[in-house]
Automatic annotation (TrEMBL):
Upper taxonomic lineage: Bacteria, Bacillati, Actinomycetota, Actinomycetes, Pseudonocardiales
InterPro entries: Cupin_2 (IPR013096), QDO-like (IPR053146), RmlC-like_jellyroll (IPR014710), RmlC_Cupin_sf (IPR011051)
Residue ranges of every copy of the Cupin type-2 domain listed in the record: 61-119
Pfam families linked: Cupin_2
PANTHER family: PUTATIVE (AFU_ORTHOLOGUE AFUA_8G07350)-RELATED (PTHR36440)
This protein's name: Cupin domain-containing protein
Lineage top rank: taxon: Bacteria
Organism from which the protein derives: Goodfellowiella coeruleoviolacea
Amino acid sequence: MTVEFATPYRPASRIPAEPGKPYFIEKGEGDRAHLFGDLFTIYAGGEQTEHTFNFFTCEGPKGEIIPAHLHPDTYEVFYITDGAVRLFVEDTRGEQYEKLLTSGDFGFVPKNCPHAYRIERHHSRIVGVAAGPGGTFERFFENLGAPTQEHGLPHTPVVPEPAKFGTVPQRYDVRFLPDHQWRIG
């Protein structure tokens, strides 16, 4: 039996809104959102962890690099379970790194470091965890993108209007860098 909860974000969710409540989610049944060509599925977030970490997956097709951004107070990890993802990261001294991550590979992005990724193979999947004093940013995906009940990738990419990018930074510890240039890749 799967339990559904009403939350501030959705009329029905498999994730309880209050902390301290154990729960279980079957494969792919977390809170889902489409953003760009990807499907993000949230399994745990701020409400469940007293804003200490989140846990989500990102599935997508081979595509374009996502917009460069940073999290001033949040650390982020990328663990690849399927496919291949190219991770771009710039450290706080301005040195840039690029690494192709494949199934079983791990990437770490410290807080305040510009980063982006590009899915290099169809049917790639990233397991993401974010933590830090900035809280968690998992609800960013459905606020910038579009909540969905679908299990698959969007039929048409969900590309937010440019003005919408400015609405999420302080609430979700995400700062977009529209003029950022990657000197590698």
